[in-house]
Amino acid sequence: EECKNHTLAANRCFASNCRPQKVCLCPFLPLHPLHISTHLYIIQHPAEENKVLRTVPLLAACLPQDKCKVKIGRRFSEERDPELSTVCRKSDTLILYPGAEAANLEEFILDSPIYPSTIIIIDGTWSQAKDIFYKNSLFRLPKQVQLKTSVSSQYVIRTQPTNRCLSTLECAAAALSILEKNDYIQETLLRPLQALCSFQLQHGAQIRLSKEHLLKNGLYPKPMPKNKRKLRKMELLMNSVKI
C-alpha cells in the first residue's frame, strides 16, 4: 500500500522509491520545509547515490529546494561546475571537514567579521570524503570548520569508524542549528532519521557499533589487515587517536 501522507509532506515523500505506508517516513517530516537563510551544498560521492539507507534524501525532504542542493561526483572544477566554483570563492562560504586546519564552527561565527551564508558538506564514507576534499582544490578555498561534539551518532544501523563520527544528516542538522541559532532545526531534522532507524531495528536490523568500539573490546569480526597503512589506521582507532 502506498503512502497516504504525500499531501502532508508537500509531495516530499521520496516519490521515486516510496516506502510502504506502515514504514512511511512522511509523518516524521515537517509539515512545511524549514525556513532557513543558510544555503547548504551537499557534495555526494557517486557510490552513495545507490545506497538504500542514506540520509541525504531525508535531509533534502526537510529543507527548501532552493536552500539545499546536492552535487554528485568525485571531481569538480570551474569548467565542470561554474556555480559551485563561484560558491567556493565567496568569502561567506564554509566547508565542514575536520582537521588540524579546521576552526570550531561555534567559535568561528562569534569572531568572523562576515557571517556565513553557505556551508558545504561532503557525503560519503570517510575515505571517499577525504579523497574528494584533498583532490579538489576548489574545496580548500572556503574556510574549513568542524563541529565540536562528544555526542554519539543516532544513525545506529550503519557502522561508523569512531564513536564521534556523525552521518551527513546529523552534521547538517548540527551545523544549521548553530548557523541559524535555532535548536529546533536540529530536533526537526533528526526526527526522520530516528524513525528510519527505529523501523529498521523493528524489522530485523541490528545496532551497529563503531569500528573503534569493536576494536577496543576485541569484538572486531575480521582479521587485522596485513597492509601497513591500514594496520596503522586500526591501531590509531584502538588508541582513540583522530585519523
UniProtKB/TrEMBL annotation:
- Span of domain DTW: 9-205
Question: Which Gene Ontology molecular-function terms are recorded?
Answer: tRNA-uridine aminocarboxypropyltransferase activity
Q: Which domain of life is it from?
A: Eukaryota
Alphabetically sorted, this entry's keywords are: S-adenosyl-L-methionine, Transferase, tRNA processing
| Keyword check for tRNA processing | yes
Record-linked SMART domains: DTW
Per the UniProt entry, what are the Gene Ontology biological process annotations, in alphabetical order? tRNA processing
Give EC number(s), comma-separated.
2.5.1.25
Reaction catalysis annotation: a uridine in tRNA + S-adenosyl-L-methionine = a 3-[(3S)-3-amino-3-carboxypropyl]uridine in tRNA + S-methyl-5'-thioadenosine + H(+)
Q: Which family does it belong to?
A: Belongs to the TDD superfamily. DTWD2 family.
**Record protein name field:** tRNA-uridine aminocarboxypropyltransferase
Q: Which organism is it from?
A: Panthera leo
Name the encoding gene, please: DTWD2
